[in-house]
Amino acid sequence: MAETLLSYAEAAEEICRYIGQLPSPAVTEAVSLLDVAGRVLAQEIRADRDQPPFPRSTRDGFACRAADANTYQPLHVAGQVRAGEIASSKARPGEAWEIMTGAPVPDGLDAVFMVEHSERIGNTVRMREPRQIAEGENIVPAGAEARTGELVIPRGTRLEAQHIALAAQCGYPELTVFRMPVVAILSSGDELVAVAETPALSQIRNSNSPMLAALVASAGGQPLILPVVRDEEAAVDAALASAFHQHPDLLLLTGGISAGRFDFSRGGLERAGARILFAGVAMQPGKPVVVGEVPLPQSGRMVPFLALPGNPISSAATFHLFAAPVLAALGGNTAAVPRFAAAHYASEWRGKPGLTRFLPARCDFSLNPQVELVPWHGSGDLAAYARSNCLLVLPSDCEELHPGSEVSILLTA
Ligand SMILES: Nc1nc2c(c(=O)[nH]1)N[C@H]1C(S)=C(S)[C@@H](COP(=O)(O)OP(=O)(O)OC[C@H]3O[C@@H](n4cnc5c(N)ncnc54)[C@H](O)[C@@H]3O)O[C@H]1N2
Ligand code: MOO
């Protein structure tokens, strides 16, 4: 049956719409701050006090009144404030206080000049000429970063190191996070043998299941690799039934979805009552990808599925583009999108227009990223894919690239 292919942009929009109507995950757990990297926040993080709680010096030097320092008159050094201390008395006009980075600026003073810009004479100090200092220089005012009670990390945020640091600063030794979605992985193909087995000449090892398990884990899911499915209708039905038994939050299938005589995955999904969101996208690799949802027989709960093309690079590309955002949303993070970046192409390329392409490429990721395609033998060439570190995006109307052409890349790590 010939179906109209969606463009990549249309498919991405469908995914976005689908994510928008998914319910927020119900199950949460408390996890130590030391173990939350990559998890999705199920609570709000609010500042427990003004940040900084006091006017904070950002330099080692002398706290003063800018107006006093700018006269270059020697200022009496009235005391010292180290980080963790409060000045022992209120500062008076004409005074300077020796101060360390991170220490509270004494009341009454409004600037800090750096020790490198000072001249110490006995118990006085003056700022070196011709330097001038402005009020507020080298001081972060109390509450400038966040006010007591202010929302600093919203629910649904995927927790990276910067969020963990801020949660620590706000006094959260543990956080409530969403349970990680369970992702059932079903690879199909009579030619597949397990990694530890020695394949016959016509057989290949199942590389998609471990690859997808790694992708699922890095996208915030719990992978559940199920046994390889044979290319028979009955085997597909049985494999789906046992996958449903595991109550997965998401189902990833690979292989058996194109036009071949033994491609049974889609039929199995349809027999199980699947609603198809889209089938086929005008892209390469990944054209045969099918996305939809299927009811769990026990509860009728609809479980999203993505039937990814069996070719390994097609599976990987469609995972990054379509599966990762759905998985993130099921885990409570509805803001996840494929990550694209700008780069310049490093050499010449000519090709046929028609499909949006996502081709294995190597980017140097320097200040001015330069990217080049990795030569490949099509979407089964894992050796080429392993030499890549991104996918170069070629819009459907792109026919040539030159050194310096502006291009987009899809980040795959
Ligand atoms: N007549 C047509 N043939 C094909 C079309 C088409 O439109 N018309 N589409 C091609 C495209 S594009 C792709 S991609 C593949 C996708 O096919 P399937 O999803 O049905 O996948 P399979 O046929 O089962 O396998 C394709 C390829 O990938 C290898 N494979 C499969 N599973 C794994 C695995 N778990 N680990 C490693 N490698 C795997 C398999 O051996 C095949 O070489 O169809 C094209 N054909
Ligand atoms: O997804 Mo297919 O690569 O276009 O072989």
TrEMBL record:
<dbReference type="Pfam" id="PF03453">
    <property type="entry name" value="MoeA_N"/>
</dbReference>
<comment type="function">
    <text>Catalyzes the insertion of molybdate into adenylated molybdopterin with the concomitant release of AMP.</text>
</comment>
<protein>
    <recommendedName>
        <fullName>Molybdopterin molybdenumtransferase</fullName>
        <ecNumber>2.10.1.1</ecNumber>
    </recommendedName>
</protein>
<comment type="pathway">
    <text>Cofactor biosynthesis; molybdopterin biosynthesis.</text>
</comment>
<dbReference type="InterPro" id="IPR001453">
    <property type="entry name" value="MoaB/Mog_dom"/>
</dbReference>
<keyword id="KW-0808">Transferase</keyword>
<keyword id="KW-0460">Magnesium</keyword>
<dbReference type="InterPro" id="IPR036135">
    <property type="entry name" value="MoeA_linker/N_sf"/>
</dbReference>
<dbReference type="InterPro" id="IPR005110">
    <property type="entry name" value="MoeA_linker/N"/>
</dbReference>
<dbReference type="InterPro" id="IPR038987">
    <property type="entry name" value="MoeA-like"/>
</dbReference>
<keyword id="KW-0501">Molybdenum cofactor biosynthesis</keyword>
<dbReference type="Pfam" id="PF03454">
    <property type="entry name" value="MoeA_C"/>
</dbReference>
<dbReference type="InterPro" id="IPR036688">
    <property type="entry name" value="MoeA_C_domain_IV_sf"/>
</dbReference>
<feature type="domain" description="MoaB/Mog">
    <location>
        <begin position="184"/>
        <end position="329"/>
    </location>
</feature>
<dbReference type="InterPro" id="IPR005111">
    <property type="entry name" value="MoeA_C_domain_IV"/>
</dbReference>
<keyword id="KW-0500">Molybdenum</keyword>
<keyword id="KW-0479">Metal-binding</keyword>
<comment type="similarity">
    <text>Belongs to the MoeA family.</text>
</comment>
<dbReference type="InterPro" id="IPR036425">
    <property type="entry name" value="MoaB/Mog-like_dom_sf"/>
</dbReference>
<dbReference type="Pfam" id="PF00994">
    <property type="entry name" value="MoCF_biosynth"/>
</dbReference>
